Amino acid sequence: MSALKTEFAGDRGDLFQLAFRTGLLTVVTFGLYRFWQTTRFRRWYWSSVRPGGTPMEYTGTGQEKLIGFLFAIILLAIYLALFNALAMLAAIFTSQGASAFLIYGLTLAPLSLIPIIFVARYRARRYILSRSRWRGIRFAMSPGAWGYAWRACLYGLLVLLSFGLLLPLRTFQLEKYLTDRSWFGTARFTQFGHFGQLYGPVIPFLLCLYGTVAMMVYGVLNSNWRQIGTDPNGMPLFDVSGTTWPFLAIYPAGLLILLFAAYYRVASFRIMASMKTLGDGLEFDIHPRTRSLVRIHILGGILTGVASGLAAALILALAFGVMAAVGVTSSDLAENPPVTLIVLTSAMAVMLILVFYNVFRQLFLTFPMVRHVAETLEIHEPELLETIRQRDREDTRDAGGFADALDVGAAF
Q1: Could you report the per-residue pLDDT of 118-131, keeping only the tens digit for each?
Q2: Which residues pair with 8 in a beta bridge?
Q3: Which of 27, 20, 19 is nearest to 347 (CA)?
Q4: Are 171 and 93 within one domain?
Q5: Number of domains, the chain
Q6: Is the pTM of this model over 0.85?
Q7: Is the domain of 67 the same as that of 156?
Q8: Whether residues 309 and 220 fall in one domain
Q9: For residue 46, with 0-12 CB atoms within 10 Å meaning exposed, 13-18 middle and 19 or more buried, which class applies?
Q10: Is it the case that residue 236 has pLDDT exceeding 90?
Q11: Domain that holds residue 407
Q12: Which one of 60, 154, 222, 283 is most buried, by most CB atoms within 10 A?
């Protein structure tokens, strides 16, 4: 069986220059350039991933993303205004007053955004696919954002009611919904398999989760809680004696839950990717290693933190040096602080620190993770690619703007 392997041609030096340069432009433009920054990141990563030696292409633009973001902000503002108006009317008709309106607004408004978040994720994925090409053929995704949203909410509720037992069902059905509506040219992707195949990877996560909950319940029931007073806000303070080991074990247990959750996410992705087909039978094989991804995440997080900390120290030292150069001494800061200079210098220092944090995160986290996943991709029966034809360019007006506005589902 013939197969196309995938190369990753990206270089960290080039990525550093791109991340630093676009980061500075984002700071100078007070965040406006971030739409172009995201676009340039995508173009760089797409061109670095080369199945069969042919690079991917990303054709989206920063202008599209900016217009889509503004469009999404306007619609979200109208949506929340209407929701709050309905909450106010409900408070008036039930004669519960302004306090009830505040309760409705503060508690129900965030909940009302949950389906919008899933809509945003779907539309962001659709936009990214519509602007992605390989071998000159466009990817695409059929409309269906609201169908995805109500399914995500329904399956999420089932997961809660089943205490997590139906998590594989949610994972599989949502991925199948996304896959079955995705296209490469005139060929459609299809997700085969069954959610029962995901129970193997999820069992360690569920056992650890149930064990942690049982441990905490045991600790609460077998401990002595004695109130010893109240804090300045009037909340009661307790002294706990008796069985306290479960409360100490919560930290390693929480770490295990995170590790098993990462294992499930990678393993389920690998299993479902192996059961995808394109068109008349073109198959994929992608096998990222959980141990490698966890190691990249841990080591990359440490390196990002250390490098960002060193950069922050140098930037703060430079900021104090600038103030000293213009004649601001420590006694001036204490007796008659130049507020304007301090605010401007501090703001620039904070923005530069964020720039360097993003640069190091790209270098030590995103870059190695994308490279590892990309290099495990194989395409089987590649001769079937010759039967696929081009499709028309789709107009996705929001350009992932809702995902940008809600800060969800936007890659890189």
Answers
A1: 988 898 898 899 89
A2: 49
A3: 27
A4: yes
A5: 3
A6: no
A7: yes
A8: no
A9: buried
A10: no
A11: 59-187+392-412
A12: 60
